[in-house]
Design brief:
Elements: H1 3-8, E1 16-18, H2 19-23, H3 29-39, E2 43-46, E3 49-51, E4 54-56, E5 59-61, H4 65-73, E6 78-81, E7 99-104, E8 109-113, E9 116-122, H5 132-141, H6 150-161, H7 166-176, H8 179-192
Parallel strand pairs: 7-9
Antiparallel strand pairs: 1-3, 2-3, 4-5, 6-7, 8-9
């Protein structure tokens, strides 16, 4: 069995690999990566980042966003979201956005990974998963970046606060909100009380 074949047996369809992942199974990692690219076994996502495509009846399946981000960051401590998540709140946001947002502790900037655009935002804190309370706070944090009318979305988002647990919203605003968002949430909840 050739060294290239030995490397191939470690690869799994649907996985994203960094160059150093491949290096643990190959002494000639650059040559082997080039050969695997030429054979179509691997697809290059960006420098040092490769994907072993999974195949379905419709052709090659693109890499899972979470798997892609996890390999790029070299950790799984991040929150993958999009402004599209705000549409689930029922506050008048209906636009569809083509960019995912990654809250993380390491990277900041816009990166193209596997043909998809990700905006990495370095944050000191973010939840492990999306909650309604976090989404409302995040929407208020990012209001100026949305395509919808800012005043009407803000009014509906503040009205939405009344349907959620006041304690959970205050906690989310304190942990994840900008100072202006914290004030806005506190004013809205105080007037409702």
């Amino acid at each position: 069995m050739s060294r290239l074949d030995q490397l191939k047996k470690h690869l799994r369809p649907g996985r994203v690999y960094r160059r150093e992942d491949l290096a643990q199974w190959s002494k000639s990692v650059d040559r082997h990566a080039r050969e695997l690219l030429e054979q179509g076994v691997l697809t290059k996502l960006r420098n040092g980042l490769y994907y072993y495509p999974e195949t379905s009846v419709f052709g090659q399946v693109p890499p899972d966003d979470a798997e892609l981000v996890k390999s790029f960051l070299r950790e799984d401590d991040f929150l993958l979201t999009s402004f599209n998540a705000y549409n689930s709140l029922g506050v008048g946001t209906t636009q569809l956005y083509n960019q995912s947002i990654v809250y993380n502790h390491k990277r900041h900037g816009v990166f193209t990974l596997g043909g998809r655009t990700f905006e990495f935002r370095r944050k000191p804190r973010f939840p492990k998963k999306l909650t309604q309370e976090f989404l409302v706070v995040d929407l208020l944090n990012n209001l100026q970046e949305l395509a919808e009318d800012e005043d009407s979305v803000r009014a509906r988002a503040l009205a939405k606060l009344q349907q959620l647990s006041a304690a959970a919203v205050r906690r989310a605003a304190r942990q994840f909100g900008k100072v202006s968002t914290q004030k806005l949430v506190e004013q809205a909840l105080s007037h409702a009380a």
